[in-house]
Amino acid sequence: MENKHSVLIIEDTEHIRKFLSQALIEEGFKVYECDSVSRSLIETASRQPSIALLDLGLQDGDGKLFIQEVRQWSNLPIIVLTARHDESEKVAALDMGADDYITKPFGIPELLARIRAQIRRIDIKNTVSNIFVFGDVEIDFNSHRILKKSQEIHLTPTEYKLLSELIKNVGRVCTQRQLLLAVWGPNYIEQPHYLRIYMGHLRQKLETEPTNPKHLLTETAIGYRLIF
């Protein structure tokens, strides 16, 4: 069944590119393909896809060049496809502006879930609303009130600022550096223990099972993510 969204696949291994393309077409996506950084920039500008799937190792350069260029003029959701298991590579891509990553090899159901999450994130961002809900938690940004199962929850200013940053990037992987910079400022970007402490506080107050969180998730060695 066709849907309104389109996907740009940027992958220089032809059989992987064709496999992904066929799987996405079967799910109703319109698909565009390319195999280089230079072509990907042209396709992005001309096709204006809903989302990009980006391999980091391309024939004419590192895929992070695509992220760097595109982020100068577009908020296009970018999911990095990488066979690189070095966490620093993933962090670098996310810090440059990628929205998510998935490590090869991966299954199509997982990829589709990641794509849908990014599409939902954009749809939410484009919807004007002062109320945000996840699980049994409701945040009213006008009044700064937070309810869990209709009971008001008190957050400290720092906890509220951290939660707001995660909500602003709902569905997106936020690196430790991004969150530390946004919440505490540039003098704290080498202090990840602040995040661990305050994420623990948020989970205690907002998660049903703080030790097994369903919404405030850790991306090991990378950062955190808020999901529905």
From TrEMBL:
The chain positions of domain OmpR/PhoB-type read: 129-228
Q: Which residues fall under the DNA-binding region feature?
A: 129-228
According to the UniProt record, list the residues that bear 4-aspartylphosphate. 55
Provide the coiled-coil residue spans: none
> InterPro entries attached here?
CheY-like_superfamily (IPR011006), OmpR/PhoB-type_DNA-bd (IPR001867), Sig_transdc_resp-reg_C-effctor (IPR016032), Sig_transdc_resp-reg_receiver (IPR001789), WalR-like (IPR039420), WH-like_DNA-bd_sf (IPR036388)
Q: Which PROSITE patterns does this chain map to? A: OMPR_PHOB, RESPONSE_REGULATORY
Sorted keywords for this record are: DNA-binding, Phosphoprotein
- Tell me which domain of life the UniProt entry assigns to the organism this sequence originates from: Bacteria
Pinpoint the Response regulatory domain residues. 6-119
Please list every transmembrane segment annotated in the UniProt record, as residue ranges. none
Q: What is this protein called?
A: Response regulator
> From which source organism is this entry?
Commensalibacter nepenthis
